[in-house]
Amino acid sequence: MALPRLPGHQVRIVEEAPSSPGERGFIYVRRLTLELQFEDGSLSEPFPYFCAERTRLDAVVVVAHYRREGEPFVVLRSSIRPPLVVRAQDSWPTPPPLSLGALWEVPAGLVEQDERSADGLARCAARELLEETGLSVSAGAIKPLGPPAFPSAGMMSECHYFFHVEVEPEKRGVPPEDGSPLEQLATIVDLPLREALAAVRRGEVQDAKTELALRRFAELESQ
Fold first, then answer.
1. Is 8 buried (19+), middle (13-18) or exposed (0-12) by CB count in 10 A?
2. Within a domain: residue 135?
3. Is the pLDDT of residue 20 over 80?
4. The domain that contains 123 carries what CATH number?
5. What is the chain's Cα-based Rg?
6. Cα–Cα distance, 94 to 91 (Å, whole number)
7. Beta bridge partners of 78
8. CA end-to-end span of the chain, whole Å?
9. Whether 141 and 208 share a structural domain
10. Residue 100 pLDDT more than 90?
11. CB within 8 A of 3, min separation 6: which ones?
């Protein structure tokens, strides 16, 4: 059964507070006053809405995979996510995980301004894969893995673009990384796809984009 048509409501910017000099860093806040124009033409009352923006807004997500004795393997790497660490401890509805701030993820990274095209996204995926895992592939080998998705649409317009690529693990080099301390000395692991999905179910893989990418790839493998 198909989904019904979405309502034709429109968001309108009534006012945007100007940014102060030097305020627009890597991530910044847009302070907006919005109103909704409903499908019937009526308007809501104006309401304040803050949303986050970023100089490099979108990201690619890459499942690198290969087969060993007929079984699909996928590549994960460790990451450090400071927002999880600095979150107020009394804001958690349940106890936070012991590994707070450390996550297992598939390779991913931000899209540069000159990569904002279909070909550019493939180049970005190949670049990020090399930086984070040492696996070198051509942009032409990168394949789409389903449609893009918005990870946090209530606060940021960031869009994730999903890809997969078959790699040759024996040709893996040392990851050059991107110069950030957050990428230094990461652990890279190759897991059978079934074990990676089991780790998702156990809550050992808590990164949402990674779970979505792995499940999409498993669906592709089952076809």
1. exposed
2. yes
3. no
4. 3.90.79.10
5. 20
6. 9
7. 104
8. 21
9. yes
10. no
11. none
Number of domains in the chain: 2
Q: Taking the model in full, what pTM does it have?
A: 0.94
**Position 192 in a domain:** yes
Three-state secondary-structure class, residue 222: helix
In a domain, 77, yes or no: yes
Based on the domain organization, do 212 and 147 belong to the same domain?
yes
Which uninterrupted H or E stretch holds 210? helix 208-222
In a domain? residue 107: yes
SS3 state of residue 176: coil
Q: Which two tokens stand for residue 140?
A: 């032409």
Shared domain for 46 and 123, answered yes or no, is no
User: Exposure string (b/e) for 117-150, b if CB count within 10 Å is 16 or more?
Assistant: eeebbbbbbbbbbbbbbbbebeeeebeebbeebe
Split at pLDDT 50, 70, 90, the class of 19 is confident
DSSP classification of residue 94:
S
